[in-house]
Structures are given as structure tokens and as C-alpha cells.
Amino acid sequence: MEVKANKYIFSKGVDTFFSDVYKAYSFTTRFFKEAFVAPFHFKEIIHQSFEIGLKSLGLITVTGFIVGIVFTKQSRPSLEDFGASSWLPSLIGIAIVRALGPLVTALICAGKVGSSIGAELGSMKVTEQIDAMEVSAINPFKYLVVTRVIASTLMVPLLSLYCSFVGLIGSYVNVHAEENTTLAIFYKNAFSTLTFIDIFSSLAKAIVYGFTIGIIGCYKGFNATQGTRGVGKAANQAVVLSMFLIFLEEVIIVQVANWIRNF
């Protein structure tokens, strides 16, 4: 009996997993169908861009600046052991622009924006506000989901570039304190080893991260159940799943970028 019960639980778990995957696929496919069909809610997109971008600017600024300082302080002793401390700006430029800038921005937005979208749409779902929009001849998917996904896809790359810039400023503060280097020389050395592929892959990652955060947050919120308990669950799942997919996408995009770089 116990073996049969375990088999039933396992089978049910597998069915639930593939059912969720299909629902997520259908949800994403519907987004691409709705995104390019009128009407276009430009005011709502601008509003959501403000909510996602400008309201995240303070946290991105503080985090990026600290990351730049800490990474520089941690990297300096290793380079000094090999007599290569002059390569520190180049190392920092590669690390922040290629990886840390987009990744730190995406993780912050996954925690702040993803949970906010999941909780907001989840609350609207369980209180039947979404059903009320359908009755009033408004397409809730287009107004609520498409606008938020577009806004997150646009804002995360911009925040990523800003985070990289602030991170380099933080690194410069540490380098200037140790070596009295000018800002112009620091940035010249930082960007001397970066290529177009580095910038392109960084932006591509940020765009993918932004889309992932937006679509996961909307999917979890739009399909929330179980009343107020489901709202918290949707917000939590939006953060966890977004972060997992961000790390997975990081590995894939890095491999593709390395393949292109070595081609």
C-alpha cells in the first residue's frame, strides 16, 4: 500500500509539473500574440516603467556602488601577488560589465519587482478584480500583463547599464584612494579590454532577465488561488522561480557568448 501511495504521489507530481509547464508556455505565447495587436496602452507602460525603473534606482545605486568597492578590494591582493595591480581597472571592467552589472540588477529586480507584480496581480485575481475587468469589456491580460512585461523588459537593461556605471564609480573610488588615479585613466583602462560582444551579451542578458522577471511575476499573480494565502504564495514563487531561471539563463548566454567570441 505504501509503495502504491508513493507511486501515486510521484505520478501526480509529474503530471502537475508538466501541466504547469504547458500553462506557462501558453501564457508566454499569449503574451507575444497580444503584444503586437492594438490597442496599445502606452500610458500604462510608462507608468509601469516608472514603478519598475525609477523606484528601483536608489537600491540599484547603493548596491552597485558597494559591489564595485568590495570586488575591487577583494581583487587587489591577488593581482599584487603577481605584480599585476595595473590590470585592476581592466579586470573590474570585464567583471562588472560582463557579469556583475546585469546579474546584480536582475536579482534585485527579481526580489523587488517580481514579488510586487506577483502580489499585485494575485490580489486582483483573488478579489475578482480581473473578472470585473473582463465584464467591463477590458482585456485584463493586455492591460495588466503585457504592459508590465514590456516595462520590465525595457527597464532592466537600462538599470543594468546604470548599475555597471555606478559599480565602476565605486571601483574608481577604491583605486583612487590607493593609487591616486584619475577618472579618465581609470575608465580608459577599464574599457580597453572590452569588446562589442561583451557589451552586446551584457545587454542581451539584461533583456532576457527583464522579460523573465516580468512574465514569471505576471504568470504567478494572474493564476493565484486560495485567497490571501495564495497572494503571498504567488509573490514568493515569482521571486524564487525568477532567480532560478536567471541563473540558468546566465549559464546559457555565457556559453553562447564564449562560442561567438571564439568563433
* Principal-axes shape call: elongated
The percent range for helix content is over 70%
What structural class should be given to the helix and strand makeup?
mainly alpha
Oligomer state of the chains in this structure: single chain
Q: Given the structure, what is the number of helices? A: 9
**Approximately what portion of the residues adopt beta-strand conformation?**
under 5%
Question: Can you tell me the residue ranges where pLDDT is under 50 for at least 5 consecutive residues?
Answer: none
Give the total of domains: 2
Distance between the termini: 57 Å
Gyration radius, rounded: 22 Å
Order of helices and strands: HHHHHHHHH
User: How is the main sheet built?
Assistant: none
Number of strands: 0
The mean pLDDT is 83
Describe this protein's structure.
- This protein has 263 residues and is mostly helical.
- It has 2 domains: 1-33; 44-261, no CATH class.
- Helix content is 86%, strand content 0%.
- It has 9 helices and no strands.
- Helix 3 packs parallel to helix 6 (140-179).
- The longest helix is centred in the middle third of the chain and has 40 residues, at 140-179.
- The model has no long low-confidence stretch (mean pLDDT 83).
